[in-house]
Write a structure and sequence with these properties.
Layout (H helix, E strand, L loop, with lengths): L1 E6 L1 E2 L2 E2 L2 H8 L6 E10 L10 H8 L5 E3 L1 H8 L4 E10 L5 E8 L3 E6 L2 H10 L4 E4 L9
Antiparallel strand pairs: 1-8, 1-9, 2-3, 4-5, 4-6, 6-7, 7-8
Helix pairs in contact: 1-3
């Protein structure tokens, strides 16, 4: 399986979650989970319980459930994703799309749809194709 990797900083400009989600388009039909999150900023626009509680819940084995609308809201804030694994699953619990930030350095995007990876390559600079193991299925 393949994914694309790209730096989150290009010419001094941060490529944030907002730029990545806009590039991929609406994905409200997927069931989203967030795993292993670490944020720089206040996430209360999405989660009133605050950053530490959300980060803790994202470390649970099933991750933290969230909707595409919540991801878009988060992406519209000034919160920086330091680490986070956003995974969209279909109704059968099979992973369809993964947006992964690693140590505030690189975004990884994996998708069952090759067109998603093509859009990332067309939109952003310094995109590299990498071998990638897709996320595990999840049960509700």
């Amino acid at each position: 399986m393949h994914a694309v990797r790209m730096p989150c900083w290009v010419d001094g400009t941060l490529i944030g979650l907002g730029e990545v989600t806009r590039c991929l388009g609406g994905r409200g039909s997927l069931r989203w989970r967030l795993f292993r999150a670490e944020f720089n900023g206040d996430v209360r626009a999405v989660w009133p319980q605050g950053t530490l509680a959300v980060e803790e819940r994202s470390r649970e084995p099933a991750g933290l459930r969230l909707s595409w609308a919540e991801m878009v809201t988060l992406a519209g804030t000034d919160v920086q994703v330091i680490d986070g694994d956003f995974v969209g699953f279909d109704e059968a619990g099979l992973p369809q799309l993964q947006i992964l930030m690693v140590d505030s350095g690189h975004w990884w995007v994996w998708s069952v749809e090759p067109a998603d990876l093509a859009r990332i390559r067309e939109t952003f600079a310094d995109v590299v194709t990498e071998s990638h193991v897709p996320p595990e299925p999840v049960a509700d």
